Amino acid sequence: MGKTAESPRQETHTSDGTGLHLHMRTLHPPVPIPYLTKEEVTSTAQAATARLPGTPPAKDLAFYGGLGAMAVAGALEWPVALAIGGATWLVRSGRKEKRQDAGVQT
């Protein structure tokens, strides 16, 4: 048995990328950007803040701030802090309405 001479195959690869066919499509939808003047922004902000209630009492800020701080620190779980804050707000707002109604009737 004789050996047959195998000729090495020469594979030609070009490095210029002619063998690759990559098709890409990009989409650029038109997005309108509104132009706002300083006066428009100022008047809109003033109209929005005019609808907000007055500043809450310092006692309420301290209470709700303390609840939030305890929730962040991990002393209270956030659902518990939310429930306590919500229940307190409901009770306090109900008391204020009763006081206002009693003051109007007498």
Task: Describe the protein.
Keywords: Membrane, Transmembrane, Transmembrane helix. By secondary structure, the chain is mostly helical. 54% of the residues lie in helices and 0% in strands. The protein contains three helices and no strands. Helix 2 runs antiparallel to helix 3. It is elongated and about 85 Å long.
Helix-strand blueprint:
Blueprint: H1 38-50, H2 58-73, H3 78-105
Helix pairs in contact: 2-3
List the defining traits of the structure above.
54% helix; 3 helices; elongated
Q: Count helical runs.
A: 3
Report the end-to-end length measured between terminal Cα atoms: 125 Å
Question: Helix/strand-derived class?
Answer: mainly alpha
Overall number of strands = 0
Biased composition (Basic and acidic residues): 1-14
Transmembrane segments: 61-91
Keywords: Membrane, Transmembrane, Transmembrane helix
Region (Disordered): 1-31
Give a quick summary of the entry.
The chain contains three helices and no strands. The protein has 106 residues and is an all-alpha fold.
